[in-house]
Design goal:
The chain is an alpha+beta fold and 129 residues long. It is 23% helix and 37% strand. The chain has a single domain, classed as Roll (SH3 type barrels), CATH 2.30.30. The termini are far apart.
Length: 129
């Protein structure tokens, strides 16, 4: 990514910060978020508005949650959880888990299957040990 991507992200981030969204996120839901240009190996989104699907692991408050960014690129190892979503392989990146504000949400994308979500939570707990 080019240096101007940081500038573009900073402008978008200012807009997102000034936008209050009343979205009642639910554990196991997947939303498309603006996840801007970050440093080194920190994950970010694609396109003009830095879109990335993020799974809600745990709602923490009215407008923030613990989320796990997702990718469609094949990832193996204890840092990742593979599952099928919308008939495609998807990978939850445990090593990129963090808190997100609902201001970043652009739209609802879907819901993880209940069985997959239960398994993911168990694997995430193992990851933390």
């Amino acid at each position: 990514m080019a240096e101007d991507d940081y500038d573009r992200w900073n402008e978008l981030k200012k807009q997102l910060n000034n936008t209050q969204k009343n979205i009642n996120v639910k554990n196991g839901n997947i939303y498309l978020l603006s996840v801007g240009k970050n440093i080194a190996n920190e994950v970010y989104g694609k396109g003009e508005i830095f879109l990335r699907p993020v799974l809600v692991l745990k709602k923490l408050g009215h407008n923030y949650f613990l989320g796990i960014p997702l990718t469609s690129k094949t990832k193996n190892g204890s840092y990742f959880f593979a599952f099928t979503y919308k008939d495609k392989a998807s990978y939850a990146m445990f090593n990129q888990t963090r808190t997100f504000t609902t201001n970043r949400i652009l739209k609802y994308h879907g819901k993880m299957r209940i069985d997959d979500f239960k398994t993911l939570k168990r694997k995430f707990e193992e990851f933390l040990r």
